[in-house]
# Entry
Amino acid sequence: MAAAIHKIYTMAKIKMTTPLVEMDGDEMTRILWQMIKDDLILPFVDLKTEYYDLGLVKRDETRDQITVDAAEATKKYGVAVKCATITPNLKRMDEYKLHEMWKSPNGTIRSILDGTVFRTPITIPSIHPVVKNWDEPITIARHAYGDVYKSVEIRANEPGVAKLVFDGENGQHEEVVIHNFKGAGVIQGMHNLDKSIRSFAHSCFKFAIDTKKSLWFSTKDTISKKYDAQFRIIFEEVFEEYKAKFEELGIEYFYTLIDDAVARVIRSKGGFIWACKNYDGDVMSDMVSTAFGSLAMMTSVLVSPDGKYEFEAAHGTVTRHYYKYMEDHQMTSTNPMATIFAWSGALRKRGEMDGIKELVNFADQLEGACFDTLNEGICTKDLAGLMEGITPKSVNSDVFIKEIRTRLEKRLA
Ligand SMILES: NC(=O)c1ccc[n+]([C@@H]2O[C@H](COP(=O)([O-])OP(=O)(O)OC[C@H]3O[C@@H](n4cnc5c(N)ncnc54)[C@H](O)[C@@H]3O)[C@@H](O)[C@H]2O)c1
# Structure
């Protein structure tokens, strides 16, 4: 082993040409962040980053300007890697003595980049999805604007008429009766925007090409003949721009009804991207991540319609582990996999964009070393109970990362 380590230390580090936008975060994931950099990246890569501390302390100090700056930097450079961050609530206001209840950084970044979030599970042979025919991961893309999440509602307490009215600035006037209430009931009005749907479509087709996976999209346009149909129409229009590339890669764009999609997804082998409207995506992403095993093994990529990328883990800052770590100063067994994959994803993308083959290879080897470690049964506590056909040996995060390092060195030697 000593020889392998020596060899690595004398090997030239991989050079980067464009900085990666690095967004640091909070709690246990902030601790893991530093460990991952120190042990798995810095010894091998001459890391170039533009660093933004999105930890809650700094966000409060800068009145959240740092989040906006980090998002703008992502627009400028094209690739970012983000650590999980606290979204403040009342408890956090008190804990961190905040000036304001700052908005979710992910929400701020997503709206500045106008992006779509793609969540994909990291799968290994010893953890079987609940759906036994799922051989490959399923990626969920959720449209994160409008519909029921930006709806307005009325509780009708008495009989009366509910109407939907549109008064256009240039004269369009439409009025339809929603319902003639004979008694009490409920009413809801929601909307979406062609611009937002179009951005969603561009991000989905771009990500499908990037990952060389087919794209499924589902709505309920047989019932919702204007609203949901508009989603289908826009996707069809936008697809024209990507059709040739899809054919070249041998992937397909497939539209179907949401109920048919659910049935097909359950019977499928996996290995595709499923684009969902806001509510469907909310529900289905939880179903898919639970069925694949663990939130700690879920990656997340934000893709803007003009091809900017932000990589992160789908989970939060793992507060419970952090409090324990602060209490007894003992390293916890927190799973760093999704955070490592955020780094490998971002480095790979940077390498692809800048034509640095060594960086792309490094990202592949880093992921490979993670799989080597898990396939030998070495894992964090959360995975030990899920593994089958192998005797798991659960270790703390620091040991787990060191085990990955050993295997990474072997692969790169
Ligand atoms: N993308 C983000 O930045 C993001 C996402 C979700 C939550 N958060 C923030 O994270 C904080 C904690 O939120 P939460 O507890 O709801 O979510 P969480 O994802 O941190 O934890 C949820 C549960 O999953 C387990 N878990 C998650 N990741 C794990 C890992 N890597 N290893 C082992 N176990 C893991 C935890 O033990 C916990 O029981 C909150 O302040 C919240 O605002 C941030």
User: Anything to note?
Assistant: The chain has a mean pLDDT of 94. The radius of gyration is 23 Å.
